[in-house]
């Protein structure tokens, strides 16, 4: 496909249209709060790659849209003209450019994604391991060291958390938007999700895999707590479990 710009008379209107479309594109990209706050070290790496992809895509879209709209206006057929356009065998330099540049872009994103994934899954010396059980349509979380089980996930802030996840029935997917991380939970195998928490607060846990009629209600919360509060909660919950086990009603 030839570039429909031949002659200097097209340069100024193309530049004006290009600036308008580029400004509108990046106003939409940059002035809307698309993402919740990043509350994990992994989130920062994911966001950097995501914004590189979004900005690159915005530039490409602005360029293609500019040429397309200008060509539709400047080279449209005159009323009543039903003749074929002149034959054109393309532009070799342009075809080489639009083949090589996307290949370079894909290579950069592939290498960047590999580095980000490797860094995201690097293990710390003292991670906190928590078992996750998924079933239609609820999450449960077990703390093996304390022997307790909860419906909400509670984790300490500033620590690495390893979630070891299993499903009782179908494929689920644990997703915390503030962490920018998600991982399938697959029947018959144990999958894991590694997160280094950064910022206390309460965030939603969403099932991101269509798992049945109750999929939309399969929600829970992750409560990220300062280390001292987490230790106190864990000790208190463990004592409650022990007291219930020692109760006469539970011989």
Mind telling me the CATH superfamily name of the largest domain?
Cupredoxins -  blue copper proteins
Rounded to an integer in angstroms, the radius of gyration calculated over CA atoms is 27 Å
Largest sheet: 5 strands, mixed
User: Which oligomeric form is depicted?
Assistant: single chain
Helical percent range?
40-55%
Can you put this structure into words, describing what you see?
- This protein is of the alpha+beta class and 251 residues long.
- The strands form 2 sheets. It has a 5-stranded mixed sheet.
- The termini are far apart.
- Helices cover 41% and strands 24% of the residues.
- It is elongated.
- It folds into 2 domains: 8-74 and 91-120; 128-246, Cupredoxins -  blue copper proteins (Immunoglobulin-like).
Brief digest:
The protein has four helices and ten strands; from the N terminus they run αααββββββββββα. It has helices spanning 11-30, 41-74, 92-120, 227-246; strands at residues 128-135, 138-143, 148-150, 153-156, 160-167, 172-176, 181-185, 191-196, 201-207, 219-225. Residues 1-5 have low confidence and may be disordered.
Helix-strand layout with pairing:
Blueprint: H1 11-30, H2 41-74, H3 92-120, E1 128-135, E2 138-143, E3 148-150, E4 153-156, E5 160-167, E6 172-176, E7 181-185, E8 191-196, E9 201-207, E10 219-225, H4 227-246
Parallel strand pairs: 1-5, 4-10
Antiparallel strand pairs: 1-2, 2-3, 5-8, 6-7, 6-9, 9-10
């Amino acid at each position: 496909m030839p570039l429909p710009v031949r002659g200097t008379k097209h340069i100024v209107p193309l530049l004006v249209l290009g600036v308008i479309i580029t400004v509108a594109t990046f106003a939409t990209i940059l002035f809307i709060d698309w993402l919740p706050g990043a509350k994990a070290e992994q989130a920062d790496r994911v966001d950097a790659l995501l914004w590189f992809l979004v900005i690159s895509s915005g530039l490409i879209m602005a360029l293609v849209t500019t040429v397309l709209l200008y060509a539709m206006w400047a080279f449209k057929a005159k009323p009543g003209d039903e003749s074929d356009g002149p034959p054109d065998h393309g532009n070799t330099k342009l075809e080489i450019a639009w083949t090589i540049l996307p290949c370079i872009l894909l290579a950069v994103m592939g290498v960047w994604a590999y580095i980000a994934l490797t860094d995201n899954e690097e293990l710390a010396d003292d991670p906190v391991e928590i078992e996750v059980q998924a079933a239609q349509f609820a999450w449960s979380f077990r703390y093996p060291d304390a022997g307790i089980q909860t419906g909400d996930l509670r984790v300490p802030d500033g620590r690495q958390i390893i979630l070891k996840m299993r499903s009782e029935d179908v494929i689920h997917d644990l997703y915390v938007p503030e962490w920018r991380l998600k991982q399938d939970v697959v029947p018959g195998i144990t999958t894991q999700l590694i997160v280094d928490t950064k910022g206390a607060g309460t965030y939603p846990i969403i099932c991101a895999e269509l798992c049945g009629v109750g999929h939309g209600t399969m929600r829970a919360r992750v409560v990220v707590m300062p280390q001292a509060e987490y230790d106190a909660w864990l000790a208190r919950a463990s004592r409650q479990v022990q007291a219930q086990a020692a109760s006469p009603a539970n011989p």
